[in-house]
Predict the 3D structure of the following.
Amino acid sequence: MKDIEIITPIKAMTYAELDATERRLVEAAQAALKGSYAPYSHFKVGAAILLANGEIATGANQENAAYPSGTCAERSACYWAGANYPGVAFEMIAIAAIGTDGFPTAQPTAPCGACRQALLEYEKLAGHHVPVLLAGAEEVYRLSSVQALLPLAFIEF
Ligand code: THU
């Protein structure tokens, strides 16, 4: 028997510590929050994905009266990117959220399990690590890859 330990390194960065690309992507995720439709949870999420062609794909959560029919911000962004720029690699992902109090969440908001799995597929397609930026009110968590967000993931290919 042996123990296996999985460690997730995270860089907690102030906004001043972001480079220009990171800052632009976080701002795009924050701007995407305007597109959130969250009349049920009142929790808004925005996502932005930098693509290898320089485009930024954005998405926001879209809720529905039939609750399970709603979609998270991350999946609305990654499926939009996949549908509109098929085969174009993801380079970086940023996520921002506004809590039920109407203010940016103090703690960075991380994607749900289903979104992690969806994003992981695009990281595999990209063939390289895709850094993830989780924006909080005061600091941004930077993970080096989607894989870091989903250790021991199901991967079929
Ligand atoms: N939500 C996201 O958009 N992304 C996540 O990864 C977690 C949750 C949305 C779904 C729902 O509209 C609201 O946040 C509250 O769960």
Observations:
- The beta strands are 11-14, 44-51, 56-60, 90-98, 132-135, 139-143.
- The mean pLDDT is 97.
- Helices lie at 20-32, 73-84, 113-126.
